[in-house]
From TrEMBL:
Organism per entry: Salinimonas sediminis
Domain Type 4 fimbrial biogenesis protein PilX N-terminal: 5-55
InterPro entries according to UniProt: PilX_N_dom (IPR025746)
Protein name: Pilus assembly protein PilZ
Length: 188
């Protein structure tokens, strides 16, 4: 009888050990899923910030009040006066702010007759930064079905705009780029 009680004790300890291992793995899995959810949320916030950076460039470029103010330049006009960007040999980096036309998006939002260059957080609940880089690529004949545009003294100015977003405390930057073509008088 004593021998059977020893076997039951060993069996009970094995079951207890198994349950402990299952419990620890469940807690570990839950923690990993929580980390993944947080990471996905922060990536989404950074992507939204990058999209806001893009939207800010187009907001300024369409701002009638800003466009009539001779003292201020919208980002596309400013980029047109800067260096030409060659997408084959250069990278329009979110980290480099010297060569490109830069704009910031902050929690203050977008205002007419304003170039948005003031630094600040795009979102303060989870500190997030939002900014953009704009570069002039080339001037080319406009393509399309209209012979009127192709035969006139109007060309397309091609730009690349990169929106960038970063959550505070993370080293990764989320970026989204678009190309924009603007009808403009042909250069001579």
């Amino acid at each position: 009888m004593k021998r059977q009680q020893g076997v039951v004790l060993v069996f009970a300890l094995l079951i207890l050990l198994s349950l402990t291992i299952v419990g620890v793995s469940a807690v570990s899995s839950s923690l990993n899923q929580s980390k993944m959810a947080t990471s996905m949320q922060q990536s989404g916030l950074a992507f939204d910030a990058a999209e806001a950076g893009l939207a800010g460039v187009f907001f300024e470029s369409e701002d009638e009040v800003l466009l009539t103010n001779a003292a201020l330049l919208d980002p596309l006009s400013q980029a047109r006066q800067g260096d030409i960007y060659d997408p084959q040999t250069e990278q329009l980096s979110c980290r480099e702010n010297v060569r490109w036309t830069n704009r910031q998006m902050t929690s203050a939002g977008l205002n007419t007759n304003t170039i948005h260059v003031a630094a600040g957080d795009y979102q303060s609940e989870v500190k997030t930064r939002s900014w953009s880089r704009t570069a002039f690529v080339r001037e080319q004949a406009c393509r399309g079905s209209s012979n009127v545009i192709g035969g006139s003294n109007i060309n397309c100015h091609v730009f690349v705009v990169r929106g960038c977003g970063q959550v505070d405390g993370r080293s990764t930057i989320i970026a989204n780029s678009v190309s924009a073509a603007v009808l403009a008088p042909a250069s001579n």
